[in-house]
Amino acid sequence: PLRRGGFRDVLAGRDSVWVAPACADSAVWRLSPSGKLLSTAFDGAPGSCPAAALERDWSGTPWVLRPDAGAIFQLGFDLGWHPAGDGIAPPAPAPAGSRAIDSWFFWGAEPFGLSRGGAGDAALLYRNAGGRVEAFQEDCGAGNSLVDVAGDERGWAVLTRQWLRLADHQPRE
Known about the structure:
single chain; mainly beta
């Protein structure tokens, strides 16, 4: 049952819609296109409100980041969530003393975390480099901080406070 209204995230997919409720006993719900609850995943203790962030990589594959657990799961053909394994390291949890990750995205095959409102209102990006989470600032110009990034199998989009950039992937040679 939903304890506090709203959703953190949503992702449409294969005859299903996945949502991450703001606060429920499960971190991810699978809904039919009509809104009927089909299944839940990542159950927590009653009242624990486990968190999840949904994303799609550049090949179109759906993923879930569990920021509190520091783990990534990939949607399988069975419509179940499977651990990413050693191939993909989560960009979370953020280093101690850092802001929480607001969203995440794939840049190519590598997942990045995004925290808005860093020093001077600039966004901080997080990546896992060899098992160690690193934070760095993305500079899009004065007053033009990074807001979000998204990509799929066709291309990518970068949203800042002043512009939206859309692009296709470069062909590999």
